[in-house]
Amino acid sequence: MKRATLRDIAQSLHITVATVSRALKGYPDISAATKEAVLATAKALRYEPHPMAVKLRQQAYKVVGVVVPDIIHPFFSDVISGIVEVVEAEGYHVLLTQSNESFEKETRVTRMLRETGIDGLLICLANDTTTVEHLTTLQEYDLPVVQFDKVSADLPASSVVTDDFQGAFDATEHLIRQGRTRIAHISGVEGPANTRQRRLGYEAALAAHSLPLLPEYQATSKHVVHTDGVAAATTFMALPQPPDAIFAVTDAVAIGALTALKQLGRRVPEDVALIGFSNWAVCELVEPPVSSMAQPGFEIGRRAADLLVREIKARRAGTPVEVEHVVLPATLRARASSASPSGER
Amino acid sequence: MKRATLRDIAQSLHITVATVSRALKGYPDISAATKEAVLATAKALRYEPHPMAVKLRQQAYKVVGVVVPDIIHPFFSDVISGIVEVVEAEGYHVLLTQSNESFEKETRVTRMLRETGIDGLLICLANDTTTVEHLTTLQEYDLPVVQFDKVSADLPASSVVTDDFQGAFDATEHLIRQGRTRIAHISGVEGPANTRQRRLGYEAALAAHSLPLLPEYQATSKHVVHTDGVAAATTFMALPQPPDAIFAVTDAVAIGALTALKQLGRRVPEDVALIGFSNWAVCELVEPPVSSMAQPGFEIGRRAADLLVREIKARRAGTPVEVEHVVLPATLRARASSASPSGER
DNA sequence: ATCGTTACCGTAATCGATTTCGGAACCCAA
DNA sequence: TTGGGTTCCGAAATCGATTACGGTAACGAT
């Protein structure tokens, strides 16, 4: 079945496309009779406006591009979900791409999105992204960009992030409140601001409670995965005076540490308390359930999408756009793994 | 910065857009001198063809729509990942939407995708989808559709699915091979073919090994979540003769069962062996690690996308398209939860 | 001198919808 | 009959790129 066009309707009624268009769009300057006739044949021919023609005319794609490092990651799934909800409500669509944490792929998909046609971009930078020229290029084309999660200060664009510093501070303070004094930290690689902020939040919490920052209680997780947690916890436990609590940069690392601790016969939380970051679903499924700091992924997606849509509309209206930096708090999800030895949480 | 058009180049060189287009597209009938001049000013003006104009002319969007019930689900993240990989390699993009397992939303996003402009659709049906009119409509518009995971036989379209029957059969047989004879099954809701096939595979394996199918060993999980597993396992263990193995329809349910079993003081796998379905990452993180049947999500995405892209190209070439039904095997990932009591796996 | 060929480029139609402008037809009043 | 005012609709430009077609010039061949 061929797609019906304005001309098909026009020809079958022996009128012009202009009249047909007026009828369909509810403009004045048209008689009730012809209007009804047009609407009838439009329905009969199952007419629908051709998307490309409309967009070419309107100079609007009704599409926002999204770049995430990794779709599979539960946090990003959450964010994407939030994005989709907001933009669909606004009549936009989501073009989804992933960078695989590669700067090269990030620039490539960014260019592809621009060439394919988008009204704006939502992006979480890859870990090894250092320059943001590929994004300033977008802005030069008058395309708004909103960053989320992993952002660059070099780009004059709005952003939505988790308060990693506060989250780490709260996580560490939570352990302190549970009576722990020898608190170790398994950090991530330097580079992404997230892991740095989490380490700084950890250090600040120690300082705020006059606890020493011991170098032997610091470990670094290269790939932020399960096995890194195993290795770090094993190292910690081999110390003459092992820590009585561990704050891990991510849940995967925390659960790795948990595995190692159980393997070594340490009780959690009696001997060692444990808390992670991100609040993956798996935290509730392991034994004991692992405490974590919940990142508001869905909300991050919603806010970022909202900022972007607003910028798109503002530019179209000619209104000046003000850059906005949203910081959302991470919230404590205390579970058994960080309960105080006496029992209460 | 305004976007440069063919006319901008043409005017600055005092030639026509036709000549400019020829130069840029490498057509003959053009002198080396003008060609170079055009290329030079095109680069100077940072010319890029306008996506909508090209697509309107070419009648091709270079976009495929994707509808999944739930982006957050790890299986679908996997599938999406596979889809993205294939279509990007083919120069296409992915428009992602989700149905939230609602038939109404599924028809809505399907219509939106059609109106927005796609060259084809990849879809996993929602659980409560019974009719496929919204998809046959697409086909009437000459848009190819490929189904994956949850498919309908009513739609004359290619499909890519996991062999749930074989997977369930293998899972059950695995338990039998480990010396189990009283094997219970926690099923999902009737409706989706997947859960039905898994139940049938389970029943077939019992029959193949001359084991009775006991009604008291059958439970149904309404929402296929953790708590359903807890409830079912608790019921099973209250039986005069509880089962010595449980095959759960999903990993979430299996891990729920695991939680309950540990709560009840039953040892896994010594007292009760356990196996799930889907092979989520969490299977390796719980204690003991839970056996599961791995669904090839990434591969499903790849194959489905491949079929779709091939259909798109075939239609454009006028070649007839043959419907293809791909069934990919689920593979056993045996872990400690289903080890035989004697110790070996 | 005439014709045919080649090289090069412009004209204009096309994709489909939108929108401005102008004009025909009609009615009523003068 | 003429003028002013509606009402309704067609012509044509526009968005930007693509492409079939036609035309001009230059050149060599007969």
SSE layout and pairing:
The structure is a homodimer of 345-residue chains.
Chain A: H1 6-13, H2 17-24, H3 32-44, H4 51-58, E1 63-68, H5 74-89, E2 93-98, H6 103-116, E3 120-123, H7 133-140, E4 145-148, E5 158-162, H8 164-177, E6 183-187, H9 193-208, E7 218-220, H10 226-237, E8 245-248, H11 251-263, E9 273-278, E10 291-294, H12 297-317, E11 325-328, E12 331-333
Helix pairs in contact in A: 1-2, 1-3, 2-3, 5-12, 8-9, 10-11
Chain A binds a DNA duplex (30 and 30 nucleotides) through α2 and α4.
Model description:
Two copies of one chain form a homodimer. Chain A has 345 residues and is α/β, with parallel strands linked by helices. Helices cover 44% and strands 16% of the residues of chain A. The first copy, chain A, contains twelve helices and twelve strands. The first copy, chain A, has helices at 6-13, 17-24, 32-44, 51-58, 74-89, 103-116, 133-140, 164-177, 193-208, 226-237, 251-263, 297-317; strands at residues 63-68, 93-98, 120-123, 145-148, 158-162, 183-187, 218-220, 245-248, 273-278, 291-294, 325-328, 331-333. In chain A, the strands form two sheets. In chain A, strands 2-1-3-4-5-11 form a six-stranded parallel sheet, sandwiched between helices. In chain A, strands 7-6-8-9-10-12 form a six-stranded mixed sheet, sandwiched between helices. In chain A, β3, α7 and β4 (145-148) form a beta-alpha-beta unit. In chain A, α1 packs across α3. The radius of gyration of chain A is 27 Å and the shape is elongated. The structure holds a DNA duplex (30 and 30 nucleotides).
